[in-house]
Amino acid sequence: MTPLAQAYENKAKTIIKALERGNMEGTYFSTKEEAKAYALQLIPDGSVISWGGSMTVDTLGIKESLRNREVTCLDREKATSLEETKEIYRRAFGADYFLMSSNAITMDGKLINIDATGNRVAALIFGPEHVLVFVGMNKVVTDEREGISRVHNIASPPNVNRIGLKTPCSTTGFCHDCHSEGCICCNTVITRHSRQKGRIQVLLIGESLGF
């Protein structure tokens, strides 16, 4: 095991204990392939599945696997209009499983998420029976303040460029706390406890995934 891999594993053990205190479950995987296989065996045939926008989830290739399973995918990528997209967002609240990542996770087990539309963080908070949160260990931070800074200055600039939006950070590479038309830092959610024990499962992955 490399020194970095050992450090990831040690951090993950600390985070998993903290998640348990918050009624959330945590599991560590050395690779994204292991995490994907674990998630797929959790989801039974006949389930209704949806997901939030996530480079991490895209990298796993799990959406393609689910599309070939006997499950119902509420897939916004198949929408042909804004109204159809909104309807998929609404229907996702009734999903059996919702897949997402987290913009950051603290060493004391808090999930830090900042969203534009808000459908992703809304589903994390309420609705779907199970929420699977895939988090690369590159997103681990010390505390809430560092987590929010990470989202603003590390995750958001490449995300707005990926989407093709024009914001101050798209050209400078750091947050200006803007209110521009293309702003994606609209809704901030810090999840420290789940009222429903085990509803939120965090899959920590010993790789650098997503922004």
Please render the helix and strand layout as text.
Blueprint: H1 3-21, E1 25-29, H2 32-42, E2 48-51, H3 55-60, H4 62-67, E3 72-74, H5 82-91, E4 97-101, E5 104-106, E6 111-115, H6 119-125, E7 130-136, E8 140-141, H7 144-163, H8 168-172, E9 187-191, E10 200-205
Parallel strand pairs: 1-10, 2-3, 2-4, 4-7, 5-8, 7-10
Antiparallel strand pairs: 5-6, 6-9
Structure notes:
The chain is α/β, with parallel strands linked by helices. It is 40% helix and 21% strand. The protein contains eight helices and ten strands. The strands form two sheets. A six-stranded parallel sheet has the order 1-10-7-4-2-3. A four-stranded mixed sheet has the order 8-5-6-9, with helices on both faces. It is globular. The two termini are 25 Å apart. The mean pLDDT is 95.
Short overview:
The chain is α/β, with parallel strands linked by helices and 211 residues long. The chain has 8 helices and 10 strands. The strands form 2 sheets. It has a 6-stranded parallel sheet. The protein has a 4-stranded mixed sheet with strand order 8-5-6-9, sandwiched between helices.
Topology order in helix (H) and strand (E) letters: HEHEHHEHEEEHEEHHEE
Task: Tell me the major beta sheet.
Answer: 6 strands, parallel
Shape type: globular
Question: How far apart lie the N and C ends?
Answer: 25 Å
Strand content: 15-25%
- Rg calculated over all Cα atoms: 17 Å
Low-confidence stretches: none
Strand order of the largest sheet: 1-10-7-4-2-3
Helix content: 25-40%
Structural class: alpha/beta
User: How many E-type strands?
Assistant: 10
Average pLDDT over all residues: 95
Number of helices: 8
